[in-house]
Amino acid sequence: MSAIATARQAPVARSQAPLKQPTRRWTRFILPVYTLVMILYLASPIFVMILYSFNDIPGDRQTPKFWGFTFDWWTNVFNIPGLPEAFKTSLLIAPLSAAVATVVGTLFGLALGRYRFRGTRAVDFIIFLAIAVPEIVLGSSLLSMFILAGFPLGFTSILLSHIGFSIAFVAITVRARVQGLDRNLEDAAQDLFASPVAAFFKVTLPLIAPAILAGFLLAFVLSLDDFVITNFVAGQETTFPLWVYGAQRIGIPPQVNVMGTLLFGAGILAAVASVLAQRRRSR
After folding, report:
1. If you ran DSSP here, which 8-state letter would residue 201 be given?
2. Is the distance from CB of 77 to CB of 54 less than 8 angstroms?
3. Contact call for residues 158 and 91 (beta carbons, < 8 A)
4. What are the residue ranges of helices labelled H in 24-134?
5. What is the model's pTM?
6. Mean pLDDT, to the nearest integer, of 235-262?
7. Which 8-state DSSP code applies to residue 16?
8. Neighbours of 109 (CB within 10 A)
């Protein structure tokens, strides 16, 4: 009996033994630390730009030394000759080119994501080529085309060039979204006596709206900060990147940092608005 009692009590004793805690190794800190370092590395130029927009320098040109805080550059942001005109030109070209590229690129992405036709691979290669080709090659090609066509260089040539290289980015963004859609939703809408046009505006368009918005924002940013292609086709017109490039030879004024901070803040607000709109739509 004693042997049986001992055998019955043995599993109980083993089950009541405390579990061994796994050792916490130092390697678990590698990925978080690496992620934090990369975020700081990528964001450090933006932090420096914001900081130096408040730099109380003794002159009117930016210096490496930080002298103190001031709001003078924010109150006198448009007091530099030529800078307001260049900034307004960029703010006029960017939304126009983004809007046209979004419309054309959305239709292009819908066709590529929904239909299969002869020459699809060739079209995919052309889209990839439009994205992968170096900007200096694209800029020189556009300049040659405008010169051979006798087209005057200026505002319109910049606008057409920005529309041209932005369409591919919008198209691939929308196509990725279209390929992930469930076609049964449109079929169900048409089974409920909705016309193809009504099914598109009531079902398809709301589903691809985030991709359209993302494509518009991408085209807007690409147009706003483009320098290489614009430098080839601008003629006598000056955009914000071209003005900054010309000003850096004698020293960049602090107002450039102010405008960069404003553009960065506008981008943050647009991104937050997009996230909130998507959350509201998903409810």
Report:
1. I
2. no
3. no
4. 30-52, 72-75, 83-114, 120-132
5. 0.78
6. 84
7. T
8. 27
Residue 200 is given by DSSP the state: I
Specify which residues 69 forms β-bridges with.
55
**Cα(162)–Cα(224) distance, integer angstroms:** 9
Nearest-angstrom CA–CA distance, 283 and 281: 6
- The third-level CATH classification (topology) of the domain covering 81-252 is MetI-like fold (1.10.3720)
Residue where the block lists tokens 């469930």: 182
- Beta carbons within 10 angstroms of residue 30's beta carbon: 10
Residue 228: how many CB atoms within 10 A of its CB?
14
Task: Judge whether residue 251 has pLDDT over 80.
Answer: no
> What's the residue count for the chain?
283
Domain extents in the chain: 81-252
Residue recorded with tokens 């040659």:
144
Per residue in 55-66, pLDDT (tens digit) is: 877 766 777 777
Q: Tokens standing for 74?
A: 């924010």
Write the CA distances from 130 to 15, 99, 124, 135, 212, integer angstroms.
Answer: 67, 19, 10, 10, 19
Task: Write the DSSP string, 107-133.
Answer: HHHHHHHH---TTHHHHHHHHHHHHHS
